Each structure stands twice: as C-alpha cells, then as structure tokens.
Amino acid sequence: MNLFSVLLAWFSFATVHSAVIPNAPLLPKRQGSISASTITSDIYAISSAIYKLRSDVREYNGGIVAYTSIPKDFADIQGAMRKAWDDCGRRGWNFTVAESGAIVQYLSTSIGNDIPACISELQAKQPQFQSSGQSNFVKGNLLWMQWDFNSFTSMLSSKLTGDLFNKDATVGKINSAIQGGTNSFSA
Predict the structure, then answer these.
(1) In sequence order, which residues have a C-beta less than 8 Å from that of residue 142 and are 6 or more positions away?
(2) Whole-prediction pTM value?
C-alpha cells in the first residue's frame, strides 16, 4: 500500500465519520463556576503582573528592551487581563450587589493604584527608553494595555449589579493614566 492510498483511505474515513460524529468541544466551559472570588483572583493576577513590570522598569537603565524581562511583563499583564475578560464573559448571570461592590472596591484599591504608579515609573524612565530607541515599544504596549483594560472593564461592568463603575472614578483614573503615558511616549 503506498502513501497515496493510505491518505485517500484516511480522508475517506474522516469525511464519512465527520457527518456522524458531531463537532463538540473537548472541554466544555462551565459558566456557573465563575464566582466573585474568581474575578478578584483575576484582578490579583493583573496586579501581580503590574508589580513585576514596575520592578523591572525600576531596574532598567537603557538598552534594548528585548534583553530584559519587560516584554514578558507586558505580555503577562495582557494575558491576565484577557483571562479576566474571558472569566467575566463566561459568568452566566450578574453578580449580586454585595459581590459587585466587593469586586469594584478590590479593583479600585489594587490596580486602581498599581496602573497609575506603573505609568509614572515608565514616564520617569522615558529618557532611557528614548535614548535606546525603545519609546515605540513602550507606547505600543501601553496602547494594548488600554485596549485590554477597557475590554475587561466593559465586560465586567456588564456583569455587575448597580451602576458602580459610574459612581467609582477608578476606571477613568486608570484610562487617564494610560493615555497620559501613551501621549508622553508619542512625543
């Protein structure tokens, strides 16, 4: 039996059986398993990733960013925010008022302070980033951070009970900080 015959037999088998066997996901998503503590854990992961970036930015003294862990830090923040967005999206119903309040309070006291502080530290190192030609790298990652943060908070706000984000200025404070960082690295 040559290779062509084997491939033809395999494709024939796959074609016939694909009509019989429905395409089902290997791991079904469990919507009911996303709790308020899952979201606060996601926020903690974002905060931890931002803390790591802050630490590495403080140690940065110029040079090619690719030789540092800063790119990985930005990727970790992006991954944590996307996981939080996904978890919010998989939540099958809104959080209670108490859960919503706890989530917004935790977001406010953690990344509500961490992201603006991180942006300030990046701006303090702007001369080193500029002299090594790495400003566009930082600007691009700040744009991604803002996109991911807005996606996450938009999905989160759709699952909260009450108008908590409009009463809490944290989201605006974070967006202003990221936009300010993006603007300073655009100059």
Answers:
(1) 119, 122, 178, 181, 182, 185
(2) 0.80
Nearest 10 degrees: CA dihedral of 92, 95, 99, 100? Answer: 130
Q: Phi, psi (5° rounding) for residue 161?
A: -100, 130
- The pLDDT assigned to 162 comes to 81
Between CA 24 and CA 58 the distance in angstroms is 48
Return the number of other C-beta atoms located less than 10 Å from residue 53's C-beta. 24
Task: State the CB neighbour count (10 A cutoff) for residue 163.
Answer: 10
CA-based nearest residue to 186, from 140, 121, 124: 140
CB atoms within 10 A of CB 137: 18
Question: Would you say how long the chain is, in residues?
Answer: 187
Closest CA to 116 of 40, 42, 173: 173
Q: What percent of the chain has pLDDT over 70?
A: 81
Burial class (CB in 10 A: 0-12, 13-18, 19+), 69: middle
Query: Rounded to 10 degrees, what is the CA torsion of 172, 177, 178, 184?
Result: 140
Q: Which two tokens stand for residue 60?
A: 């940065």
- The count of other CB atoms within 10 Å of the CB of residue 91 is 20
